[in-house]
């Protein structure tokens, strides 16, 4: 059979504008009552703000007509009342907008976390953790700020601008036309900016992701970089990434430096046009002086909401690019759930498997292997032989290009995640200590575990150091708490596996960071705990192979030898050569 194609390598996808529109409408739909209230309150506030200039025009006309102070006082009182109403409505609208933004940003965060946790591990590995981290921190934060602050501000300003233009048209359509023509410079400047901004901000976000990935991998691999003398190469790569970030940032700054001055100049034109045309109409008796003054005041008021919109436009574009990166995770095909029936038993079989990474040449060539229930199998071979790839297939991380990898007759890749993890767990030399206490870290493996079970799991992997912690299981771990060294962190990860209690455990050089004596003690302790369970070990130290029931020797992506340690040594083949070489490298005691 042919398995599903592997996810493409490279950066994670970015959502298209049409997808962003659908996602935005869906977020609005989920809180549509609050959004409708927000629109209504902003409309009422904008309407209340329109009354002031109109009343001012009334005062001018009343004074010109010889009206007394009584009429002026009535107009003035009405202006004060409308201003107070506008203030109250605007404040309440902002409160409703803030609450809407907080709820919506919480939905965005939760959906992002759900999507990240559902990503196939192979996708994250190919894209790099820097991209995922940047999207989950900088990009999600940018979207949250927009929803909470920028979005409501722009919405209020847009409603005010529409109402003000409507009021000018209501006073006189000709003056309204003059205002629109005068504002055309803003339209052209905004169009020029928007045509270039999306690509510029996406490029800036991508450059930031690359820099974050470089910094993270350099920090995590500092010892390896130092051991191989790669410091200068990494420094050069980081400098190049910083330079790309600088160039992309300068590009977005250039766009703003063109947009904002153009807008500032454009504010003057509609006011000048209305005053000139209104003055001519007033001289010919076609318009009152109050209407001309009110129109000019309206257009001066228009600069405030337009300023808000245009100043926020840069943030909206940056946030739109961030939202596109956040929503891009939704375009990654998820592993279909429940495509395989439940396994009939716990036997693992690999038949005719070919596998290639990212459309390259095959690294596995027709591998056939049956792992007996309760067996301890070691997979050994020289560097580059492909011995780690089967572990990824058996753990459901990747799918074979051709052939099958099954447990109990069910394709491993098609099992539901919760069912798969009860069958097979892969643990590598990579590990992670989560923020929280020792107990919090262990309960990830078994939510309902008791303290005695947690202590037993730690003891099983030789983590006696846990008994000496100042607060025992309640000791905080991480930068602000107790720091674990590499060996302790790996033992903590192994203890989580013990608590998870899978039927089959795959160890891909899982004890590589431990010193030989601690590693051997940990492996023997694990073997005792997992008695009766299946253990597949990708062996780096050959004493692991020596303790196994059977050994599979891989060379060039093929299994060339299979059998117990003594039989393979006696056959004087590839394994015998590896064993003799490894024995010769061991220090004498």
What does this structure look like?
Mean pLDDT is 80; it is low at 1-9. A six-stranded mixed beta sheet has the order 6-9-10-3-11-12. Helices cover 63% and strands 11% of the residues. With 589 residues, it is of the alpha/beta class. It has two domains: 17-331, ABC transporter type 1, transmembrane domain (ABC transporter transmembrane region fold); 348-585, Rossmann fold (3-Layer(aba) Sandwich), CATH 3.40.50.
Write the layout of secondary structure elements.
Layout: H1 17-30, H2 32-64, H3 69-118, H4 121-127, H5 129-171, H6 173-182, H7 184-220, H8 222-227, H9 231-266, H10 268-283, H11 289-327, E1 348-356, E2 362-371, E3 376-380, H12 389-394, E4 402-407, E5 410-411, H13 417-423, E6 424-428, E7 436-437, H14 438-443, H15 451-460, E8 476-477, H16 486-500, E9 504-508, H17 516-529, E10 534-538, H18 542-546, E11 550-555, E12 558-563, H19 565-571, H20 574-585
Parallel strand pairs: 3-10, 3-11, 6-9, 9-10
Antiparallel strand pairs: 1-2, 1-4, 4-5, 7-8, 11-12
């Amino acid at each position: 059979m042919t398995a599903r194609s592997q996810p493409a390598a490279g950066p994670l996808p970015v959502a298209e504008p049409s997808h962003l529109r659908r996602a935005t409408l869906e977020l609005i739909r989920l809180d549509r009552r609050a959004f409708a209230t927000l629109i209504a309150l902003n409309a009422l506030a904008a309407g209340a703000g329109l009354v002031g200039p109109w009343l001012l025009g009334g005062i001018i006309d009343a004074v010109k007509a010889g009206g007394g102070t009584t009429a002026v006082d009535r107009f003035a009182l009405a202006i004060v009342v409308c201003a107070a109403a506008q203030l109250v409505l605007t404040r309440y609208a902002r409160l409703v907008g803030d609450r809407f933004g907080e709820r919506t940003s919480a939905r965005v965060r939760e959906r992002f976390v759900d999507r990240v946790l559902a990503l196939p591990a192979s996708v994250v590995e190919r894209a790099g953790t820097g991209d995922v981290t940047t999207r989950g921190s900088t990009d999600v934060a940018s979207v949250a700020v927009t929803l909470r602050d920028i979005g409501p501000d722009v919405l209020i300003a847009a409603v005010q601008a529409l109402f003000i233009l409507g009021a000018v048209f209501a006073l006189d359509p000709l003056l309204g036309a003059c205002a629109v023509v005068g504002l055309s410079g803003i339209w052209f400047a905004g169009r020029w900016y928007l045509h270039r901004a999306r690509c510029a901000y996406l490029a800036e976000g991508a450059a930031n992701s690359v820099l974050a990935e470089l910094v993270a991998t350099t920090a995590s691999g500092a010892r390896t970089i130092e051991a191989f003398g790669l410091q200068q190469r990494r420094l050069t790569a980081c400098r190049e990434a910083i330079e790309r970030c600088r160039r992309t940032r300068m590009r977005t700054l250039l766009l703003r430096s063109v947009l904002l001055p153009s807008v500032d100049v454009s504010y003057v034109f509609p006011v000048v046009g209305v005053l000139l045309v209104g003055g001519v109409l007033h001289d010919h008796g076609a318009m009152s002086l109050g209407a001309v003054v009110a129109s000019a005041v309206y257009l001066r008021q228009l600069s405030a909401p337009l300023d808000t919109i245009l100043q926020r436009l840069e943030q909206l574009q940056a946030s739109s690019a961030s939202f596109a990166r956040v929503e891009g995770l939704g375009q990654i095909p998820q592993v279909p759930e429940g495509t395989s029936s439940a396994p009939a038993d716990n036997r693992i079989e690999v038949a005719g498997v070919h596998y290639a990474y990212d459309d390259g040449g095959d690294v596995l060539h027709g591998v056939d292997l049956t792992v007996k229930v309760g067996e301890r199998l070691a997979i050994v071979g020289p560097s580059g032989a492909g011995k780690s790839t089967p572990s990824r297939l058996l753990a459901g991380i990747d799918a074979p290009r051709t052939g099958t990898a099954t447990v109990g007759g069910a394709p491993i890749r098609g099992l539901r995640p919760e069912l798969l993890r009860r069958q097979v767990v892969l643990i590598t030399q990579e590990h992670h200590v989560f923020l929280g206490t020792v107990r919090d870290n262990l309960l990830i493996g078994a939510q309902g575990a008791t303290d005695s079970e947690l202590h037993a799991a730690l003891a099983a992997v030789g983590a006696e150091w846990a008994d000496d912690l100042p607060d025992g299981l309640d000791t905080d771990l991480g930068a602000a708490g107790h720091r674990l060294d590499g060996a302790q962190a790996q033992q903590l990860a192994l203890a989580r596996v013990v608590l998870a209690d899978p039927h089959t455990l795959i160890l891909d050089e899982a004890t590589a960071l431990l010193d030989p004596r601690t590693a051997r003690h940990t492996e023997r302790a694990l073997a005792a705990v997992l008695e009766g369970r299946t253990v597949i070990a990708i062996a780096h130290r050959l004493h692991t192979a020596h303790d196994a029931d059977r050994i599979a020797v891989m060379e060039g992506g093929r299994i060339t030898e299979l059998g117990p340690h003594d039989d393979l040594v006696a056959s004087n083949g590839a394994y015998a050569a590896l064993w003799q070489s490894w024995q010769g490298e061991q220090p004498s005691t």
